[in-house]
Write a structure and sequence with these properties.
Length: 123
């Protein structure tokens, strides 16, 4: 799966909080989100219109990003509710980052079968 495909799948599955998302697809989509955020950061200093567009993008990308994060947590055999740990100062985001970086759970779990190695679908 390419970076663009992973990003596209994030948006196509924007309200899918079930299933699993493979590690590479998650990180590829998040890299594009980060790149867009950095671009918006540099352009918002010069224009109020750019600032408004950046704000709207952030609001629009929140739910698809959350859905992808929850599916990624499912893939590591963790309940999707673990995403709220990022609200705990300092340690919370570190714990969440470790969960998101873990390898996929190798067998079927309550959220479905594991994504095939290099599979192009987000579950």
């Amino acid at each position: 799966m390419t970076f663009i495909q992973a990003y596209e799948q994030m948006w196509l599955n924007y309200i899918n909080f079930r299933g699993r998302a493979e590690r590479s697809a998650y990180w590829k989509a998040m890299v594009i989100n980060l790149a867009l955020s950095i671009i918006f950061l540099f352009t918002t200093a010069h224009s109020s219109l750019a600032s408004t567009i950046a704000d709207l993008y952030s609001i629009a990308a929140f739910i698809p990003g959350l859905a992808l994060t929850i599916r990624r947590l499912h893939d590591t055999n963790h309940h999707g509710g673990w995403w709220v740990i990022c609200l705990v100062p300092i340690a919370g985001p570190i714990v969440l980052l470790v969960f998101l970086a873990m390898r996929s759970y190798p067998s079927e779990n309550q959220w479905g079968t594991p994504p095939a190695q290099g599979d192009s679908a987000l579950y």
